[in-house]
Amino acid sequence: MSNPAANPGGSSSGFGSQGVGLSNTIHSEVAPYLPLPSLPVFCGAYDPELRLFDDRGGGDLWYLNRNEIVAQSARIASMLGDTDVSYLHLRNDVRPMSLDNVVPLELHDQILRRNPEAYEHPTHALENKPVHVEPSNLVPPKVQNGNDQQSRQSSSTPNDTDSSMRKPKGKRKGSVAPVSVEVSDPSELEPSDPSELQDATIRNFCDILEEFCGKAEVANDERDEVDWLALPASDIRFLVNEIMLLRGKKLLHLVPLEALVRLLQILDHQIHRAEGISIDQLDHSGSDAVSYVFSALESIHAALAVMAHNSMPKQLYKEELIERILEFSKHQILGILSAYDPAFRALHKPNEPEAYEGDENEDPEADYCRSGKRRRVQKSVKLKKSAYNKVNSAMNTILQKLCTIIGLLKDLLSIERLSDSCILQLVKTSFTTLVVDNVQLLQLKAMSLLCGIFLSYTQHRSYIVDELVQLLWKLPVSKRALRSYHLPDEDQKQIQMVTALLIQLVHSSANLPEALRHATTGHSILEVSLDATYISKCHEAITETCCLFWTRVLQRFTAVKAQDSAELKLLMENLVTDLLTTLNLPEYPASALILEVLCVLLLQNAGLKSKDVSARSMAIDLLGMIATSLKHDSVSCRQEKFWILQALDSEDDVGCSFPKDACCVCLDRRVGKALFMCQGCNRLFHSDCTGGRECEANQNWHCQICLCKKQLMVLQSFCNMQCKDNGRANRYGSAKSFETANMVTKIEIIQQTLLNFLQDSVSADDMHQFIGWFYMCLWYKDDSKSEQRLTYDITRLKSNLVVRDSGTSHSMLTRDSMKKITLALGQNSSFARGFDKILHMLLASLRENSPVIRAKALRAVSIIVETDPEVLRDKSVQLAVEGRFCDSAISVREAALELVGRHIASHPDVGLQYFEKVAERIKDTGVSVRKRAIKIIRDMCTSNANFTQFTTACIEIISRVSDDESSIQDLVCKTFFELWFQEPSGVQTTFSGDGSSVPLEVAKKTEQIVEMLRRMANNHLLVTVVKRNLALDFFPQSAKAVGINPMSLASVRKRCELMCKCILERILQVEEMNNTEEEVQTLPYVLALHSFCVVDPTLCVPSSDPSQFVVTLQPYLKTQVDNRVVAQFLESIIFIIDSVLPLIRKLTSSIVEELEQDLKQMIGRHSFLTVVHACIKCLCTLSKVSGKGASVIEFLIQVFFRRLDAQTIENKQ
């Protein structure tokens, strides 16, 4: 609330001391883009029980009628008396509110007693004192208007020094009149009749214009002409304030035409005087030149304020004046851009070394790309401090004024039809602002202007889209592109300005009817005359805009050289990333359609069907990104437990499937929080869970579902009644069919919550109306009954005009809730349904001839699967992925395996589905493929304790222990180390109930080994695995260099001993079963024991009973069965006994004799030579241990002799 005359010096040194204010806009304009704080809710609440604090407890503790607050009424009255509130932007459409339960506010009465005018808006009534106005000076400014906050700096403008010193200070309330009048009683000057007050206001304004024009015109008697004088910016600024005040009262069009024409002529001369001068020429011009610039800008503001008002005479719109305004504004905008962005200046004004410090050898054209397109300069150019300090404050003021001018130019577009040359100039200048840093507010205004042009001048849409593509091409190429556009209410989420502009242009292309846009009553909505196909045509216009943009971009991609295609691809990826960021946000419905059109083009000749490999590659990358986002949203929506969506998705009647004693939102049953029942569906809610307040949860409270349902029923009745009264039902069919078409559906209820949210999100440029209309176009296209209920659908856009008292505010739901609703609605769109088509085409690309394309497609499918591994269950996906297991390119085969392998742990059943084809890749010719297959199978075994193919997996893995590649051998041994021989951490040791001393975990691993051997021909591979695990020689060279940890070696050995002991126990258990095929059942156990004994016989010599294994196994030598299985069984047992005998220090004579007798008998009777050879070897070992070598030798000689003699007789015969 600063006083514009507070600085009587007004010197340039004090200019801009207040920094960069946002004088060109109001909070509602800036808030959607900048993270500005919002006012507390009580500052504008409709809550009849207004509170100062957030405490929601009971009682009157925090109400305004508290004594300690009422005691401050004197200070509050004094503050209100000294406060200028004229800048506030007050709504015209004040909503009625019930005052039935409002307690009289004592604080209000106390303030009025102390200051009866405390709540009055400042008026410009004349004071009751004579005021003298100097001839050379304009009257002091009145109360400042909210549409031009530039008056805060009026005393600091460089050209205001003299005038500000001469004029008295302006007052906050009851400012000085513009003429000298003697007033005795202010009440005599205030007409009671509104028409008289209106006439007095206009006369007062005309007097101001007369005084202003008189100061600018000087009669030239010699030439009988009028000369024009330069006016100070402060005088013109005061005039601007008066114009804006009159605009706010909607009286400006009643001012006589002659006065306005004369005013515009004077303003035109003020602008003309400053042509060719720019603020960045401060070093080359005097202060007079700079003052001309400020005066010209204020003149433009005044001229546009007049011309951009509704219902103004057509004689005011002189093309010459408009062109001069545009040209001068463009010149100043370029100067501001150069001042704020040194890189921009280096490109456009490289021959001004005195203002900038830089490398003398720097080429200002060095950043032109190879294809001739100009790129942003990324050089280090430093602005000289001397020059910067002189123009800094002036630049800030000019920048804010230019923002205001651009806003008024947008208003002018909808009032007066400008020439094509003017429009093209505006477009070019607006796009120029978007390539410069540090001027975000100017960029937002320029984007709004472009949207206005796009809406009103449809013939230039193609040109604007072309310029947008050119702008995209000029952006710096980086993965982390500059994202300076803040998304509303989205913390830390920003997108590029070019993306925001594209979305807003598409919103504007929906052709929102002007009559509907400006409708203020329910009846005015019904008077909007639209053809039944109008909304369909609007949807076609939207699609056409999207097609035009993407076609231009893709054409540019195919036309660029190979080295530039990578840059353009990166730019497109940044653009798609931004669109995906805004997808399913309530304010950006265009994002889905823009992406949908892109997908359609990429699936056709511009993408996957293109002959250019780079184009197909780019299409796959972009489609993969989009499909991944669609799948992510689908999964999120499927997992979402939002109460509204659950209630409306339920097939049961509303109110049948909800908790009876808990909040339907949070499902909390705590007694401490009060629950309120909806009177429509009887659901229970916490007030804070629904975004409301406890005071709203009265006996007539309804939840959002019931509220929207009631609202739609009222709209339905309203439209039916109006259509019948006006005979409009025939327009859409019979009245009965109209009522049938208007039945309230569940999807309409969800849609209406979103439309209500948009109605509450009022924006200064009516963008919320464009967004709501855009949604309606999308929904209208997908609804076959829409043409029968056009009127009803249109009234839904502005339901607050028909249903004014809905019992509670629309904005009960939080923004997070609206995002969930938008996400759910998005799942019904054609874009979301296109996921299957995209996935199908990506799978088809897996069969491309080019290995690059196949690898790209596989990577795209991979990121989709990363989002939802359930995609791998799809049969078409399985066939496509398994087909790539056999791809001719090793990289593709490896990538296909990687695709499956990443999700084995989280989805074990998926691994089982792909196991057979993965196991085949263990024999692949590619080393990397074999490694990946082994790792995948290992993960299958470790992630699923009940993996049914565990034994098969072990057989496949152990088959590669003799691989030609040593790294694979190491991997196999390391795999079995992790499966069997590694001591598990954090597992409590447990034992079986049969008295076994072997832990259950070791017994389970032992059984796995035995089951593997049961299906193998021999145990040779297992011997290798056991041997290397006992030595732990498969670790990397770095680990070997440090040395293997002895504790690890001891741990593995201990486990092997336990396994041998467990095998021996299992052999005895099989024997106890009295199975007729005992040897067949026991053979795998004996082979496993044989494997351990081959590596280290000491494993079978327990310290507690060294002869245990010999004593246990020796009885099996008495078997009389003679076949191949038994022969293998006996051979292993004999080998184990033979290996263990030398390690036993003392063996009882009975065991020695019995063992010797069994071996001798087997040598004589067994028909398998392998068994005979094993018996002979074991017998020799036994004789050596027992000291009976001579007798054994004698026995063997006799046996050999008899055998040879028998052989001789057979030969003779």
Automatic annotation (TrEMBL):
BP-aspect Gene Ontology terms: chromatin looping; establishment of mitotic sister chromatid cohesion; establishment of protein localization to chromatin; regulation of gene expression; replication-born double-strand break repair via sister chromatid exchange
Domain PHD-type: 660-709
Biased composition (Acidic residues): 354-366
Keywords from the named record: Metal-binding, Zinc, Zinc-finger
Keyword Zinc-finger annotated: yes
CC annotations in GO: Scc2-Scc4 cohesin loading complex
Region (Disordered): 126-196, 352-372
UniProt feature, compositional bias: Low complexity: 175-184
SUPFAM superfamilies: ARM repeat (SSF48371), FYVE/PHD zinc finger (SSF57903)
Compositional bias of kind Polar residues: 144-162
Entry GO MF terms: chromatin binding; cohesin loader activity; zinc ion binding
Matching InterPro entries: ARM-like, ARM-type_fold, Cohesin_HEAT, Scc2/Nipped-B, Zinc_finger_PHD-type_CS, Znf_FYVE_PHD, Znf_PHD-finger
Name under which the protein is recorded: PHD-type domain-containing protein
